[in-house]
Amino acid sequence: MPSLHLEEDARNGDARPLLETLKISKDYPGVKALDDVDFELRAGEVHVLFGENGAGKSTLISLIAGANTPSGGEIRFNGNAVRLSSVHQARSLGISAVFQEFSLIPQMTVAENLFLGAEQTRFGFLQKGVLRDRAQEVLNDLDFQLSPGRRVDHLTRAEQQMVEIAKAFRSDLSVLILDEPTASLTNHETEQLFRLIGRLKEQGVGIIYITHRMAEIRQIGDRITVLRDGRFIDTVDAGTTSEDKLVRLMTGRVVGQIFPDVSYAPGEVILQVEDLHTSEGSVRGASASVRRGEIVGFAGLVGSGKSKFAQACFGARRLSAGSVTFKGTDVTGATTQSMLDSGFLYLPSDRRTDGLMMMRSARENMSLASLTTRPFSNGWVLDKRAETRTAGDLADRLNLSPKRVERAVEHFSGGNQQKVMLARSLTRDFDLIVFDEPTVGVDVGTRAAIYAFIAELCEGGAAVLLISSDLPEILHLSNRAYVFYRGRIQAELAGNEITEANVLSHFFEREAA
Amino acid sequence: MASQTDAAAKETKGFVIVLKRLFVRLGILPFLLAIAVIVFALISDNFLTGRNLMNVMRQSVYLTIVSLGQMFALLTGGFDLSVGTVLALTSVVGALTMASAYAAMPDAVWLAILLGCLAGVAAGSLIGVCNGIGVAVFNVSPFMMSLGMASIGFGVALYLTGGVPVYGMPQEFGDSFGFGTLLGIPTPLYVAAVILVALYLFLNWTPFGRYFYAVGGNIKAAGLSGINTRLTLFWTYVLCAMLAAISGMLLTARLDTGEANIGASMPLESIAACVIAGVSLRGGVGRLENVVLGALFIGIVQNGMNLARIESYLQTVVLGALLILAVIADQIRLRFVASLKD
Questions:
Q1: pLDDT at residue number A53
Q2: Which of B211, B224, B340 has the CB atom closest to A29's CB atom?
Q3: Of A112, A305, B56, B205, which one's alpha carbon is 20 to 30 angstroms from that of B170?
Q4: Is 60 exceeded by the pLDDT of residue A7?
Q5: Is the CB of residue B330 less than 8 Å from the CB of residue B275?
Q6: Residue A103 counted as domain residue
Q7: The domain containing residue B148 runs over which residues?
Q8: How far is CA B32 from the centre of its chain?
Q9: How many A/B residue pairs have CB atoms within 8 Å?
Q10: Tell me, what's the pLDDT at A512?
């Protein structure tokens, strides 16, 4: 039955919205997460939700996906008011969401995950063969190159996302919600996803798409709805709306320029790496150098070895060959502790799993890497008053909001969590700071603040190493850049050579010259 | 009339909110303590006497010291099931050493006591060293490691004694460390107080103390922040066993014999004391002073039930129920935290 309706909807898509919310709101004690938001989704369109962290995007999709129930207003699906009390119920109507955190069971196979909760049985026994065949069918339909018998924990993150998307197709699909789906995908995988989205559009599926990336909005978006502080701001056409206007709508102010002008004053070489190999093989013979007073960019695909290279220099990864010289001393194979003590800091890309103690206070998270140095302690006894004072100063400097350093980090928004972690770079005098994907999942306002912060560090005489999969960051911030490909350095670019075309041309296999 | 009931309703509602906030802030322990004190005071006239309360404190000393060690294991996101065995092994080795030293040189009483205590604590700590190596170096889960060591230690203790209590320790040992008092306060309380102050300073005022929270809070972040996570984990289990061993020596003094059968209830009771005191089973959260209260609470419940003449078999039922209640309360508290998120 749903497929028949679908075709009808696709034809009259413009006339009647597939799904709409009327004055929908969601209250949490003391906070209005959503306030009278109107939103409509037509069949066969990609509707982008756009807004800063905490603007209400996640709340809105959680209501549409049935993960939360609204406090006011209503949701209409195919013109009828519906009450979505569970994800399961929404799914049975054809509304499926792929959240950033996957709901897959790692120890189970692809097929078992696909039909979890809807297993086919005969006389109470699982029909494993049938499940496998049906899983293969779904995967074939989607053109996913995945074997249904593989275990999910053996898949890459992109493949896991495919499984998550495929789950939405086990019954007929009419609304698909994608929450920053490309955050951890390589370019190739992203293109694959976009092709799939294109096919879904043709089939009349309405897609709600959350992203922070302008380029993606241009590429696949049809319409954009902007939210700010839980309120509906505007719905605009994706093709004709300028980036400046979008940013203005989102932030409510004019963000003149996101990227600061940095004046580089390259000094002496502070880090010199020769022919580095990591023992697990992710880096295979890379050499690079970093000077004081410059920002060096590391570009490359996810998994190209650019993060692993920096981690290996920092002592967080085992080396099998090569040498690392920091400030003129050979530090090959040193511990992270001695690297920190000699003035080298690495800030990881995944703040939740590698960076922060989520249940501890912002103060303790800031001071973590400098506990044995002044002013935090004399090496043996902590000076908590100085710690509190320093944390307060850092919160002021980075504009932490709310400015409460005793609050557990998990209660801050993503952008502010990032600020807490970045604050570590100011807890002692570091000579070299590595920022690994410093703006992942961070809104434009905070991003501008982080860029300004990085520029300030560089102008203050520190060396900065910026690892990023976001090309504009490399283009605008670095005065020298290395492009990584499969554990090796493909190119070194300086100054005016750092252009989009130049960097991109080295992202992939070099043509046989 | 109507407005009166309205006002009353508003008042109770305000009261409930205050209670809710208190609960979120302080956890379940203050409520349980208050309820226990009130109930036992009503049941028995003897409960709220100075003598009885001093008695409770003295009886709780052993569990308190073990719970402090257990807290370190829980803070780093693990736990130690071998604390009971540590008590038993310490008691047996300590008593055997002390008795033979005393027999060899009957004049050097205090030397014998010192040797016995050192040998006992060393034997108990050895279990912690094994746990620490297993967990920190070989990444064995704390559950399997401490469970295995519990079996090994218990077996060794029984093998050494053949299951028979060890006699022959000097009278002075029991007199001073088991039954002795100083200024009217039992000596074991002084030992506990010294340990408590030292650990409090260590945990809250030194960088190394902070590392235990960091390792439990996020072990990767701790590693990237220059903290030696393996060393921290190693010391966690050594410290835990060392504290259990000290508790074992004190208990041996009280019993006047070395026993392989003591401490069987310690793993459960020490974990219960910590959990009731709000130490998170996921690691990274917990306060030392609350753990002391948690252990005292268990002591109070046991003492109260004794005064109320509740059978000891039923007492273990109550204890298990309290542990589960505390974990459920912690879950409810987390839900409230999310809703009050302030």
A1: 67
A2: B340
A3: B56
A4: no
A5: yes
A6: no
A7: 28-332
A8: 18
A9: 91
A10: 37
